[in-house]
Amino acid sequence: MPETQDALWYKNAVFYQVHVRAFYDSNGDGVGDFQGLAQKLDYLRDLGINAIWLMPFFPSPLRDDGYDIADYRSVHPLYGTLQDFKNFLAAAHERQLRVVMEMVLNHTSDQHAWFQESRSSRDNPRRNWYVWSETDTPYRSARIIFIDTEMSNWAWDPISKEHYWHRFFSHQPDLNYDNPAVREEMWDVMKFWLDMGVDGFRLDAVPYLIEREGTSCENLPETHIVIKELRAKLDREYPGRMLLAEANQWPADLRPYFGTGDEFHMAFHFPLMPRMFMGLKLEDRKPITEILTQTPEIPASCQWGLFLRNHDELTLEMVTDMERDYMYDSYARDKTMRLNLGIRRRLAPLLEHDRRRIELMNGMLMSLPGTPIIYYGDEIGMGDNVNLGDRNGVRTPMQWNGGWNGGFSNADPESLYSPLIQNPVYGYQAVNVLSQKRSEHSLLSWMQHMISLRRSTPLFGSGSIEFLYPKNHRVLAYVRQQGDQAILVVNNLSSSAQAVELDLRRYKGKILIEMFGGNLFPRIGDLPYLLTMGPYQFYWFKLRRI
Ligand code: GLC
Questions:
Q1: Cα of 242 from ligand 1 centre, angstroms
Q2: In sequence order, which residues have a C-beta less than 8 Å from that of residue 484 and are 6 or more positions away?
Q3: Residues 134 and 192 in one domain
Q4: 535 and 401 within one domain
Q5: Rounded-to-integer distance, Cα 78 and Cα 60, Å
């Protein structure tokens, strides 16, 4: 584990989400691997992030990019060996980078030995490791998540002639968490990786662990009991390690995942993310202030995970039907960009390659309450490819330079796990790490600067937030505060210049220090504080009494 033994390390961290297969191929087989990822750790350290979230790297038939796990205690041979993983982990820790890995508790691949046994006969000892039924009628109130591919949450097993339950793809049978043996085994799996030294887990799909008749089979009290059990064991045996929840739910349903500080340390703020895009398009702060004022307080040891994009579609599950239509209209006019209830595009193309909007959105990501999580490639403004199936269009190889395969691999381009982005705007010749490193004004250099500013300002991670409601609703302004320190953040969500008058009387006598340049702005007096702002401009000011 990195030197800092601070148990709340995740509150002032900047995370970087990466898929080993997409980052760097060290052996020229066309697929990224752990030796490759280890070679690129200096890049991540220089970027300034201090925690890595690794997508699943276990043996898997890869029908859901590894979220279909066939063996929880090993590494997919394409990505290397267990020893390669250990070396990577040690190399990350040497650089003070924490490693949070993916853990899929809810379901396995149908290729997992447990499922093979379970389906082999109705009286197999592992039969009740999964959820079986003679009919496909139970739990009718549970929604279908992958609506573009699945018709039902039940699938027929021709071998044992019963139906099995699955919340995701039909090749991903759900484990049965009513069975104590399953709970035991999964804790044992987690211990396997914790003993190796990983710093935490992103727990995939947690709302669905338990099912009960007559309910939505999401967020059930019994599910929370399973999590509390895991957390108690974690705290007892591995203090300082962290659990991050993937619970795509409304704020009120999300809140219980923090418990009284005895469930998750962190949870993604799913409802906020689409509302940031909505506020930007509407040029109105309301979607953002509304969702954040509805967001309940969380225990002091807990933290929101904030993100703009990730490896999945930009999910529109936690919005109203009208909001979803608006988002589709604004960000996915072309229907091939839509998937399930979401939009399968990357950040830069969503924001039409507009550097001002990319900066503004990242500025909000870093200054709103929570820990920012950056999706690999978004720091250089990578593009996407909607012609690739499912969510693969946002999982293309990292673009390191303008040379062969964008510096990702020495393999024949035909044998890469995925084609690189090649168009003149987002292709690797135009968008890559090497060329952006050479320019102080590149997006990469800007991100580096932002990350360092964010990390040297812990109050962004743990301070309170108070919104100001200036008359000009195109401006989103808030004060972040902790103890006697205060920072004023002002964002112009509009594509045109704006003037805004802020009521800062509470801070009368203080002076504003602009945090990027260190310049002084006029002292706050009795009159409304007037700022003028260019299109999509934002300010971070320290409020100081000097
Ligand atoms: C989570 C993952 C997603 C995966 C699904 C099923 O939602 O983020 O990528 O497909 O779980 O495992």
A1: 20
A2: none
A3: no
A4: no
A5: 10
- Closest Cα to atom 12 of ligand 1: 67
Length of the chain (residues): 546
Task: Return the closest-CA partner of residue 24 out of 44, 53, 49, 45.
Answer: 44
Q: Are residues 134 and 197 in the same domain?
A: no
173 within some domain? no
- Angle at Cα 524 formed by Cα 522 and Cα 526, nearest 5°? 130
Residue 356 C-alpha to ligand 1 middle, in angstroms?
Answer: 31
What's the average pLDDT block by block, 10 residues per block, for the chain (546 residues)?
74 97 98 98 98 98 98 98 98 98 98 98 97 98 96 97 98 98 98 98 98 98 98 97 96 95 98 97 98 96 98 95 96 96 97 98 98 98 97 98 98 98 98 98 98 97 97 98 97 98 97 97 97 98 93
What the block records as the tokens of 473 is 């609703």
- 368 occurs within a structural domain: yes
The pTM assigned to this predicted structure is 0.97
Domain closes at, from 389, 420, 455: 455
Which structural domain range is residue 271 located in? Answer: 9-106+178-455
Report residues whose beta carbon is within 6 angstroms of any ligand 1 atom: 64, 67, 104, 168, 204-205, 246, 311-312
| Residues 383 and 320 grouped into a single domain | yes
Question: Which residues are catalytically annotated?
Answer: 204, 246
Tokens of 444: 């990469």
| Residue 358 sits in the same domain as residue 266 | yes
